[in-house]
Amino acid sequence: MHPVELKGPRVSWRELAVADAQDMHDLMSDPQVFRYMSDTEVPEVAAYEAFLIEYCATITEPERIRYKLALTLDGELIGSGGVDLSPSGRKSEIGYMLASRHWGKGLATEAAALLVDFCLDTLGTHRVWATTDVTNHASRRVLAKVGLREEGVMRGYSFKDDVWHDSVMHGMVATDERPLRG
Ligand SMILES: CC(C)(COP(=O)(O)OP(=O)(O)OC[C@H]1O[C@@H](n2cnc3c(N)ncnc32)[C@H](O)[C@@H]1OP(=O)(O)O)[C@@H](O)C(=O)NCCC(=O)NCCS
Fold first, then answer.
1. How high is the mean pLDDT of the chain?
2. pLDDT for 140-166, tens place per residue?
3. Is 137 a pocket residue for ligand 1 (Cβ < 6 Å)?
4. What per-residue string of b and e applies to 3-29 under the rule 16 or more CB within 10 Å gives b?
5. CA atoms of 7 and 60, how far apart (whole Å)
6. Using a 6 Å cutoff on CB, does residue 105 contact ligand 1?
7. Does the N terminus or the C terminus of the chain have fewer Cβ atoms within 10 A?
8. Nearest CA owner, ligand 1 atom 2
């Protein structure tokens, strides 16, 4: 589906646009935000622009499987995230990042809840999942609060800064009880 617009009490998700390249670069340039990203280097603005041009050309495809979204507060881009569908379209992976100046206000929890509800209610996926580095306690807590259970530790799941890192698999299925929102 296209275009995606998800509104919470405070934050909203909208489609990422080519014009967001500079804001995305600035967001990822914060080492606290970049720490758990899989990329090894923060993409330059031009590289991000090129990626977005290529990506935005795919978002109207009927069999869309990537949803890369901008998180906004009062119209300002304060984070990013999205959903990747499995090839079958029945399972979805969510991800998110938030500018560190906004941490600790529950905004990431609100944003993650919007993604989970989008996956289950709009995309109709049966399973929603996410992975976190075992040391990413804030994100582990966010996922627990929106209803994703910790299903196990995957050893040596990601490689960054010359080190293998363990990750936690978090999941929720459509029949699970959903925590109350708000
Ligand atoms: C993960 C992230 C989005 C969380 O943002 P946030 O603003 O802290 O999230 P919230 O305020 O909604 O909730 C954070 C929860 O984690 C808890 N928390 C934060 N730091 C913690 C820590 N070091 N140990 C344990 N719990 C922690 C908070 O207390 C809060 O839980 P509570 O409401 O029960 O008190 C933010 O840290 C981020 O963008 N990190 C970089 C990118 C990233 O890691 N993305 C996720 C990849 S899986």
1. 96
2. 999 999 999 999 999 999 999 899 999
3. yes
4. ebebebeebbbbbbeeebbebbbebbe
5. 21
6. yes
7. C
8. 139
Q: Provide the β-strand partners of residue 5.
A: 14
Instruction: Count other Cβ atoms within 10 Å, centred on residue 38.
Output: 9
Q: Is 6 in the pocket of ligand 1 (CB under 6 A)?
A: no
Q: Which residue has the tokens 């881009």?
A: 77
Cβ of 142 below 6 Å from ligand 1: yes
The 10s digit of each residue's pLDDT in 15-70 is 999 999 999 999 999 999 999 988 888 999 999 999 999 999 999 988 899 999 99
Q: Which atom of ligand 1 is nearest to the CA of 35?
A: 41
Strands 127-133 and 91-98, bridge-based pairing: parallel
